[in-house]
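Researcher: Before we compare anything, I want clean individual predictions. No alignment, no superposition, just each chain on its own. First chain goes here; please echo the sequence and then give the structure tokens.
Model: Echoing the first chain and its structure:
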Amino acid sequence: MITDGIPTARLEIRIASDLKAMIEKAAAALGLTVTDYSISRLVETARNDLRQCESVVLSDRDRDIFVALLSSDEEPSEAMKRAAERYKARRV
């Protein structure tokens, strides 16, 4: 398993014994330790979750509206300016 450094942090969870047995069986089937299996699955899922949260998928209609707005010479409305300010404040 590839890591970003020496493992020093600890993550502890409690799960039902039947779930633990299933995880142990899956890890063994792949020739991994439970620790390596758990880390690889958690990291993969976390990356996918973050990728989904950080991307925006637009419908064709919404994409067309967005592009039209970007191409427009009109000034943003007051509501859009306030929305931009709220967004900027949240990103700090």
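Researcher: Okay. Second chain, same rules.
Model: Second chain and its structure:
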Amino acid sequence: MTIQPSPEYNRRMKSSHLILLTAGILAASTATLLACIWDTDTLAAERSRLPDIAELISGSFPRHSREFHEWRSDHCKKLIASRAANVSTYDRADALTLSLQSERAEQ
């Protein structure tokens, strides 16, 4: 024998589910709004301390000129020739050479 809930019980359960669903949606939207406000404040504070950080992270920062790369390449070559270079100098020289070659190929 199964016991059937009364229609009054079903009506109360539906209304309590609706109340819980409404409260959940309201809580989620409030949290989202507060997060956006917090993020805006955080970004403003970070930008005041580090004004160019967003550009650096996104990669939209000014590139060095070709002359700068040539100067760095010459400096690395002098270090290598004088045997005062370490492994990172060789890596830097190689990267600068590739950078200069790609710039020339684009022109």
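Researcher: What stands out in the second chain?
Model: The chain is about 80% helix and 0% strand. Additionally, Helices lie at 7-49, 53-58, 66-81, 87-106.
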